């Protein structure tokens, strides 16, 4: 059994009249990389701020390491926060910034110096000790802000969209660095982001939030391959959505009637006969064929072919429905205007309910 | 912890509350209060309600003083604007370094006491003062000019003392005009006057109003300038109030005039806010 | 855009001549052999020597400096913590307090002067150094608050939260993180408070007592009877000091400017 390090219990938060977090329960395990994922206004930052203590919950409790910290001041909590804009102290040198937490704890100067040095080494910023934050690049500043938290050996490090101010290339690099840092230090990371790519590449578990509710909690594979709702399916990765109705239930499969009188097979679901369902198929799981041997394939016209180096993307119109299909490499088998049939494996069709 | 936070909050808000209540609100309310009381012939105040002080304000003598005060303040404001515009534009044409030196130089006289500078003017302006001596010696005039102990002298003193209050806000608003805009205007064939009217003036309007406010209101009250350069024959609102409090010892009437002055200031501030002026700009640096 | 440099320079020359003429005249006459400030007769340094025998003048100078320094220090401290308190906390009638603070900035000084005089009389406070300093403090505080506030507005609120998060309580956060960031605003507020105090005539006129004569008040009382040249000498020395201080601050500012440009 994994140890629970942070626990939110019946946690709600109101800003004035508006309830931004609606009675959620969440457990974070020791040593994991947990991501809170959602679009802006979903409440992810609010959750982070109540773990750090910068916001107090309207109702409910927050536990850190089994201790009720709901009313504890941020300075007394064994967690540290990494801010989106780094929030480095502008007038202090890099080493003073990193050593600030230890100085507040009255750690002897000599030891502070030693530990700061180790941290600077950890993020490869040797030679920057005496500089001011302004003189560093965005990526360097972010590294400083991360070790400024790490040096205190927090139970949990809270990261509030720490990479969003960086450009794409640097962001990718920092994602790997962060993941490595987390593994090396063994510290629990709670990471807030609206970027699903970031969430998928870095997390052990992802919490998907919508309007102050938890939509789904799971590993990256789980939330991608078995989304529990249309929202999750749409938010994580790209999704083609078909509306349909279950018209037959066999031993192994259900038959779903989707538009154009096409019937498709899906793995047995817990939906009843006659129930309306939504079927999600990921673009990379769709195969295109020129001729159909069975009646059960959808037929459409290629409207657009987009080549971006690694992938070729097809936009296919089936009446009013727009379908996306994705292929590795430069696919020249089809061209715009071609009539094509769509095919996928039975297990790639995911039912997400109504 | 909770207790600590309370002490912290206490330290950080109690001084300003005490200050604003006891050193701003109460003194002004007290003035307001005594402006409705009677004075006795010995300079004391009798606790009897009266509107007489406000009625007295409308006597001919005082109306004349009010009018003169307004004209002097208005003239001062106008002249300050006329001097400040070409000045700040000339400054803004220099490079950054020189701009900073020039603006520091503007502050230098400002750092010596204004009364002392008025005294310097008496040395310059009096009948056989420096200026008249020079003019007489170079035979440009035969008789010494009357440069002070009249409205002219007062205006010089007022403009001199209040000029920085116009220059500073105007300068900071000129800084907000971006060079490319002026270049574009020039490129599109705008004349200097058109550029000023269409671009510089609208952009500097906030600074202009700020400066006008900071020149006009003090000009109503600077009794010492009028005393020194007006020679005691001329009176403005400031002298009137000063006399009521220190010489005539009619505090209620002096208070009533002060309330009147507060009223004028309030109307000006209201207008300043109405056109989008920010209060913080009035006291910034 | 082409500017007429010649016209520009003429304009600058005229304005600066106007601004400096009365001061230059005072400096010139401080070296004048004649006792009357009318005609320049010859060069002497006598008045600078005489200055040190004129006790009433030296006391006035001492008073001026005490008032300026004490009121600047006190109003800077109160103004700084008030600006922070007003930004961070809510309390009943905060809006009223905020509006009241603008009164000393915009109201004619004479109204502030007589209202303080009235309240002093009401409270039976004897006019003297204390009442004078209190008056100077009370017209300086809003200027400090406004200047500190402008820096505070631009400060990243996350910085305080970061300090708090790293284990600093409110006091430590204020002293280690907030206060250093406010220094530019505090300095310009203090400079303004000091300038206003040195420059003030009107409010001092009503709130000073027999024992608290300041230099401007001393000069005021002398103008009708005639100002002695040793006053010129004193003013010249003060000007020299002020000018030196200003130049130092200008050079420091220029260095900073240069540093920012070259970086």
CATH structural class of chain B: Mainly Alpha
Tell me the distance between the termini of chain C: 28 Å
Largest interface: B-C, 97 and 99 residues
Low-confidence runs of chain B (pLDDT<50, min 5 residues)?
Answer: none
The name CATH uses for the topology of the domain at 55-227 in chain C is MetI-like fold
Number of E-type strands of chain C: 0
Provide the structure class of chain C.
mainly alpha
Tell me which CATH architecture of chain B applies here: Orthogonal Bundle
What is the alpha-carbon Rg of chain B in Å?
A: 23 Å
Average of pLDDT of chain B: 88
Instruction: Estimate the helix proportion of chain B, in percent.
Output: over 70%
Count of helix runs of chain B: 12
Task: Kindly state the percentage of residues in helix of chain C.
Answer: over 70%
- Looking at the chains present, what oligomeric state does this protein adopt? heterotrimer
Describe this structure in words.
The complex is a heterotrimer of chains A (354), B (285) and C (263). By secondary structure, chain A is an alpha+beta fold. In chain A, 24% of the residues lie in helices and 36% in strands. Chain A has helices at 44-52, 94-104, 109-122, 138-150, 168-185, 196-202, 220-225, 230-235, and strands spanning 4-15, 18-29, 33-37, 59-64, 67-68, 79-82, 156-160, 188-193, 205-210, 213-218, 240-249, 253-258, 262-267, 276-281, 287-289, 298-307, 311-318, 321-328, 339-343, 350-351. In chain A, strands 6-7-8-3-9-10 form a six-stranded mixed sheet, sandwiched between helices. Chain A has a five-stranded antiparallel sheet with strand order 13-12-11-14-20. In chain A, strand 9 and strand 10 form a beta hairpin. In chain A, helix 2 crosses helix 3 and helix 2 runs parallel beside helix 4. The mean pLDDT of chain A is 88. With 285 residues, chain B is mainly α. Chain B has a single domain, classed as MetI-like fold. Chain B has helices at residues 2-34, 52-56, 60-92, 96-111, 114-125, 130-137, 151-174, 179-187, 192-221, 223-230, 237-247, 251-274, and strands at residues 37-39, 45-49. In chain B, strands 1-2 form a two-stranded antiparallel ribbon. In chain B, a hairpin with a 5-residue loop joins strand 1 (37-39) and strand 2 (45-49). The radius of gyration of chain B is 23 Å and the shape is globular. Chain C is 77% helix and 0% strand. The mean pLDDT of chain C is 88. Chain C is built from twelve helices and no strands. With 263 residues, chain C is mainly α. Chains in contact: A-C, B-C. The interface between B and C is large, with 97 and 99 residues.
